[in-house]
Q: What sequence folds into this?
């Protein structure tokens, strides 16, 4: 087989990723969800996704498969989101996104100086979590908790749990070290867990007592 | 001996990487004795289920629109 023929075949294979409507629609939805969470605005999210996809189409042939393509598309999207945020001046400056200085304070609320749970922060048993999944109201609480995460934690948490990227892909996309990623995900999970417990499980118990 | 902060960190990290034998043993010992961290461990799995279900619901909603 000639080299040029092989190159042609590779190109056909790659561009077919973009003609695969299911793949494209799937990834577009994930992108919209991700961008909406980051930007807090559906229209801005649509715009960012549109631009990222157009940018991706231009270079689709140079990518070796779905996983690589997906990682790369999200890298472009992340840049678009950063641009949009800068324009909106939602951030005082770019570094505030990196610092999130209130983080330490948050952890000392959860743990005492020796690193053990504060008595009123110790996780309680959630009973049967599957039952909650069937309740419409639970999802409002869940969404509010998700939106309450600091932006950088929310971003990596979404990449990990929604888009289901692995740790290496996330680190490459948002230029984090592995240990930074672990710290951010740990905090996101601590915070989300606490919020769900307080707003759903403990509130729920109160409601039961009242009724 | 692990404290709860380190135990929750290991439980979180175990979702991204495999823990070393030493880490697994010390975590196991801590979780056996600490009800808070025992609950936390169960909730890590529950939260992953919630997040995936949430994502699926969002997709289904988008399909209906």
A:
């Amino acid at each position: 087989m000639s080299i040029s023929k092989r190159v042609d075949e590779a190109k056909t294979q790659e561009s077919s990723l973009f003609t695969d409507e299911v793949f494209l629609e799937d990834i577009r939805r994930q992108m919209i969800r991700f961008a909406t969470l980051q930007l807090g605005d559906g229209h801005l999210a649509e715009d960012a996704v549109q631009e990222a996809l157009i940018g991706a189409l231009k270079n689709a042939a140079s990518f070796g498969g779905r996983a690589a393509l997906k990682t790369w598309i999200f890298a472009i999207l992340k840049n678009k989101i950063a641009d949009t945020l800068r324009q909106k001046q939602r951030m005082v400056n770019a570094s505030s996104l990196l610092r999130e200085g209130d983080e330490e304070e948050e952890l000392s609320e959860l743990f005492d100086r020796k690193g053990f749970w504060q008595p009123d922060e110790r996780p309680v048993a959630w009973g049967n979590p599957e039952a909650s999944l069937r309740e419409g109201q639970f999802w409002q609480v869940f969404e509010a908790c998700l939106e309450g995460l600091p932006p950088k934690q929310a971003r990596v948490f979404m990449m990990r749990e929604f888009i289901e990227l692995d740790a290496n892909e996330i680190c490459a996309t948002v230029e984090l070290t592995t240990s930074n990623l672990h710290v951010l995900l740990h905090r996101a999970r601590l915070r989300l867990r606490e919020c769900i417990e307080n707003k759903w499980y403990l509130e729920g118990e109160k409601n039961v007592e009242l009724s | 001996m692990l404290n709860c902060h380190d135990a929750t960190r290991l439980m979180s990290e175990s979702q991204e990487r495999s823990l070393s034998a030493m880490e697994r043993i010390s975590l196991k010992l801590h979780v056996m004795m600490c009800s808070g961290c025992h609950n936390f461990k169960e909730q890590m799995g529950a939260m992953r289920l919630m997040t995936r279900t949430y994502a699926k619901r969002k997709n289904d909603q988008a399909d209906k629109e």
In short: The interface with chain B takes residues 29, 32-33, 107, 110-111, 114-117, 122-126, 129-130, 132-133, 139, 142-143, 146, 160-162, 166-167, 181-182, 185-186, 189-190, 192-193, 196-197 of chain A (CB under 8 Å). Residues 89-102 of chain A have pLDDT under 50 and may be disordered.
